[in-house]
Design a protein that fits this description.
There is one protein chain. By secondary structure, the protein is of the alpha/beta class. The chain contains seven helices and nine strands, in the order βββαββαααβαβαββα. The strands form two sheets. The chain has a six-stranded mixed β-sheet, sandwiched between helices. The chain has a three-stranded antiparallel β-sheet with strand order 2-1-4, with no helix packed on it.
C-alpha cells in the first residue's frame, strides 16, 4: 500500500474550489420529540447551525447524535411538530451533501468516476474539470484512474471528501468521517477538511473532543435521556487549531467532564 503522499499538511490550500456555490446559509432544527421502539430519545431540542461555520456535536454512543443528522438529511421523517428552517427561507432539499463514517466508494469505479457519479445519476454532463481540480487539492491527481481497492484508508477518505464537495452544496453533514483512521492520517484530514469546508455550513458528528476543538467553530455536547443539548462552546482562534494549545486543553477537560457526567463515554 502506498504511503500517504503528498503530505497533506504541506499541500497548498484550495483556491476557489466552490466557485459558483451559494452564499452560506444558516439552518435551525427544532425537534419536539423523537422516539424509537416507544422510548423517547430526543425531546424539545433546538440546534442552530450558523452560516458558513462548522458545528460539532459530541455525545455518548446511542444518545441520538446520528439521529439528528439523519433528520436533517431527510433519512428520518420530521416527527410531530418538529421543523427545519433555513435562513434564506428556501427549501433545504437539494442543498445538502452527506459524508458517512465509511467512505462508501463504488468499488468498480475509478477515483474520478466516483466523483462524477452525482452528475451521471442526475443525467448532467460530467464536470471533469471540477473533479480533477478537487482531486488535485486532496493530493490525488495522479490516482484519478485508480480503483478504490488500490488506495490506503486515508486516500479513500480523501476521495470521499472530494466527492462530498463535488456536489457544491452549501450545507454539509458529516457522520464521524475520520473515526476509523490512524491518528496521523486523522490529523491530516482534519486540516484538509478545515480548509476545503471553508464557507460551508457544516454539522460534524464526532465522538472525539479533540477533533471538535481543532476544527469546530461551535461545539455542543448531547447527553442524558431524553437527550439535552449543552450551551454552545465557541473556542477562540482560527481553524485548524493547534492541539497543544493550553486553552484547548482546558476546553478538552470541560467537554470530558460533561461526557463523564452523562454516565457513559463514547
Amino acid at each position: 500500500m502506498e504511503p500517504e503522499r503528498p503530505d497533506i499538511l504541506s499541500m497548498p490550500k484550495p483556491m476557489n474550489v466552490a466557485s459558483g456555490d451559494l452564499s452560506p446559509v444558516g439552518v435551525t432544527l427544532t425537534l419536539d420529540r423523537l422516539e424509537f421502539d416507544g422510548q423517547l430519545i430526543l425531546g424539545d431540542l433546538k440546534l442552530i447551525l450558523e452560516p458558513g461555520k462548522i458545528t460539532c456535536l459530541l455525545g455518548p454512543s446511542g444518545v441520538g447524535k446520528s439521529s439528528i443528522l439523519k433528520v436533517l438529511a431527510g433519512f428520518i421523517p420530521l416527527p410531530g411538530q418538529s421543523r427545519i428552517t433555513v435562513s434564506d427561507n428556501d427549501p433545504l432539499a437539494g442543498r445538502l451533501s452527506y459524508m458517512d463514517q465509511q467512505d462508501l466508494l463504488l468499488p468498480w469505479a475509478t477515483v474520478q468516476e466516483n466523483l462524477l457519479i452525482g452528475d451521471r445519476l442526475r443525467g448532467n454532463p460530467p464536470n471533469i474539470e471540477r473533479a480533477r481540480h478537487l482531486l488535485d487539492h486532496v493530493g490525488l491527481a495522479d490516482r484519478q484512474d485508480a480503483l478504490p481497492a488500490t488506495l490506503s484508508g486515508g486516500m479513500r477518505q480523501r476521495v470521499a471528501l472530494a466527492r462530498t464537495l463535488m456536489e457544491g452544496a452549501p450545507i454539509v453533514l458529516m457522520d464521524e468521517p475520520f473515526s476509523a483512521l490512524d491518528a496521523i492520517t486523522k490529523l491530516r484530514l482534519q486540516d484538509l477538511a478545515a480548509d476545503m469546508l471553508n464557507g460551508k455550513t457544516v454539522l460534524l458528528i464526532t465522538h472525539d473532543p479533540l477533533e471538535a476543538l481543532r476544527i469546530g467553530h461551535v461545539i455542543h455536547v448531547l447527553s442524558s435521556v431524553p437527550a439535552t443539548l449543552s450551551s454552545p462552546l465557541a473556542p477562540e482562534g482560527s481553524i485548524p487549531r493547534n492541539p497543544t494549545d493550553d486553552t484547548l486543553k482546558h476546553h478538552y477537560s470541560e467537554i470530558m467532564a460533561q461526557l463523564a457526567a452523562s454516565g457513559r463515554l463514547s
